[in-house]
Amino acid sequence: MNRKFEDNLLRLAFEDMSPQEAAALEREALQDPEAALALAQYRQMRTGLRDLAEVPSDQLSKERLREAILARGLTHEAKPAARSFGWSWMPVMAAGLAVLVFVYRPHAGTDPKIASHREANPFTYPTIEVPPSGPVAMNSSKMIETAGVGTSSASFMSPSVPAQTVAIVTHPNRNGLRSRHQARNERSLNGLFAFSGTGTGNVMESVIKPAPSTSGADTATMASPAAATPPASPIVLIGNEKDGSTGASRATEVDSARNVVVGG
Amino acid sequence: MLLSAVKLSICLLATWAQGDLTNRERTAWTRILPSTVVIGTADKPQTVGVLLDDSGLFIAQNDGISTDIMQGVANGHTVKLSRVAVDTATGLALLQATPWAWGDGRPAHLSEKSVSNGQQLFVVLPSGPIRAEFVRSDRVGVLTISRRMFPLNELKFESPDGATAGGIVFTQQGELVGAVSATLQSPSQNQTQNAFDNGGLRAIQQAAAGNGGAGGGVRPLTTPQTLAPKLAYGPGQLTTAYTVGLAVMRRVVEGFRSPTHEVQHPSIGIFCKDSLGSGALVEKVRKDGPAAIGGMQLGDIIQSIDGERIKSQIGFASTMLKKEIGQTLAVWVLRNSLQVRLTIVVGKA
Amino acid sequence: MELDSDISLVKRARDGDFGAFEMLFERHRTLVYRFAYQMTPRRDDAEDIVQEAFVRAYQNLDKYRDEAKFTTWLLRIVTNLCTDQARMFHRRQALEQQEAAGALDWMTMGGFDDPVQNLEADRRKEALRKALTALPVHHRSVIVLRDIEEREYTDIAQMLGCTVGGAKLRVLRARRALRDRIAPLLGEEKK
Hints:
The complex is a heterotrimer of chains A (264), B (349) and C (191). Chain A has 264 residues and is of the alpha+beta class. Chain A has helices at 3-13, 19-30, 33-51, 62-71, 89-103, 112-115; strands spanning 144-145, 164-169, 203-208, 235-242, 249-254, 262-263. Chain A is built from six helices and six strands. Chain A has a three-stranded mixed sheet with strand order 1-2-3, with no helix packed on it. In chain A, helix 1 packs across helix 3 (33-51). Chain B is of the alpha+beta class and 349 residues long. Chain B has helices spanning 2-18, 23-32, 198-209, 246-257, 290-293, 313-321; strands at residues 36-40, 45-53, 57-61, 69-74, 77-87, 92-98, 120-125, 128-143, 148-158, 168-171, 176-183, 238-244, 266-267, 270-274, 280-285, 301-305, 308-309, 328-335, 338-345, 347-348. Chain B has a six-stranded antiparallel β-barrel with strand order 1-2-3-6-5-4. Chain B has a six-stranded antiparallel barrel with strand order 7-8-9-12-11-10. In chain B, strands 14, 15, 16, 17, 18 and 19 form a six-stranded antiparallel sheet that branches. Mean pLDDT of chain B is 78; it is low at 3-18, 186-218 and 230-236. In chain C, helix 2 (18-39) packs antiparallel against helix 3 (43-59) and helix 4 packs across helix 5. Chain C has helices at residues 6-14, 18-39, 43-59, 70-88, 90-107, 121-134, 137-148, 153-160, 164-181, 183-186. Chain C is an all-alpha fold. At the A-B interface, strand 3, strand 4, strand 5 and strand 6 of A face strand 8, strand 9, strand 11, strand 12 and strand 14 of B.
């Protein structure tokens, strides 16, 4: 049997052809014992696959999903009430954007890749993003509200430099979904040392510190970086288990170190 | 009679197959030998250590040290080895030999120059030296137990008989390169060996090497005429092994030699993962650590450090390796679509 | 636009209505779970994948375009998650392949005339399951979609991002791969 004929038998067995084509091929197959056997076997394969359709029931729940989403600090904020005014919000938004562009105009030497909002591939590692919900301006001493009520202030003080605090506040949506930062995957690292759960409640805070004069690299602009480019060769993971023949720790090469947690 | 003749032939062939040391190698080995100690119990030698200074401080792979006090033989002296310190990041241990007098051994020195690809090396095992070849120095490894990333050297050698864990690696000029941390490939037995039982062949090989029985206890390394016996007769599968990079070794040695015997690796006290080429995603922030004090938070994505772009957690760790404790860093992170600049003072791990 | 159509629920979820997203979850969880289970036949792994898929879907609702069905989009996320999982646990997969091969070898120890008849149905099923699991993700996914979940080629094409013809070709290749893997099970004899 040639390959094409076998492929057609496969298609026939899985009912992937028109009735006329199927009837003609079936007649042809029955005249060739080898083809007939192959067809019978492919039909067996099909039946077998259908039998695999039975799956055990799941234990998924929307509560678990909600917890997982909250653990990532993800929210989709309710649209502001201004939308009910129809098209009039557009000029306001345009003015706000113009202010933003002016405030955040690129400085000399700024790496545009870093400054721009990253495009997140939906099918890749999740990143934390807060969708913009209105004009936002960075001001060293103003509270910035993304959607309304509820602020708290706290600041980290560096040992030697007074801190300027900017608080970014998120507002729970109308369904009461509060966002907070939580650690992920603590299981594997619990007990290594104590971790602070920074950022509780519904407030996320950022601290911008003025550049200490001691460091020459403390400038607001980022010059073209001498990138710390990791080598293209595979990463070697050295684990606890031993290589039975050498007695040394077993090393494994991995192409992608994406999910390897590293300390530093 | 016939069997004896066969065995004798094999013995001679085995000797030839293992290879005598060249004059140059013999000279190097004479220089290396006084720097080494064979560590083990009375039942079997476990690993090898290398002398750091004249006070009797040795460094060895901690994996091979089963108890805090072990027996060893260094340069012909039987010594007690007490574990003084362990650098958990690299898995290296500091041992104090007693009794030890100035001049009982020759401290090893780290290779000043980078080792070249293809350069011939020695790996010193309890059973003697084996030849190895330096492959490359640009490997990156993560020790999963400590979650620390280090540059690694990769070497290859023909699989010897016995463990290679903790083998000390020297250049043929007698300079210290490192200790075998891990191996990638397990040697497989050459099919010729099927003709003999394992014990028989091993006995032949050891007789040729003059090392006596495998289970004879801790024996001093001597100036051998041949290399350590190999696992298989004939060319065996190559073992790929890794040692921690020279720069990190230097830091470990300096730390162990210091009065506190403490190795200080620069750290800001976080764990991070890759954020898909766009930075390092902070997974954990140590309470009261440098990063926490500097305002870093869970979920921050590190974008750059002192102007150096960080593309992944490996890039972050590579950059941190170059920093010094006490150094102040300008760190840019992405937090909720906003760029935030933090100032963090490097601490120690 | 229907009030409760997928597109409508997505839109409401984007606007901050988490309840709408929960409705999407309840509506499609079984389908997504079934697919995830077929891709990685361990219930807890499948549940983890489903949950992660919905979390990512929630996170990226802004990027969903209604040219494709919401379920198609979800299944694509699941396939990518399974690919990530397969890459990370390639050693486990290699082990499964060995197990599958081992299982098939054992299966051929039956009678020579009709080995299939000599096998118990559940063992045959298990062997087929292992063979399917041992397939690379890109083959496994299309077999699951077409031959187990019986999705239309148009859906499969959307999920794969190719034409219907391309989807059919992918399915054919996957079936060939599976057939080769279970040839002893089917009692093929090379003459």
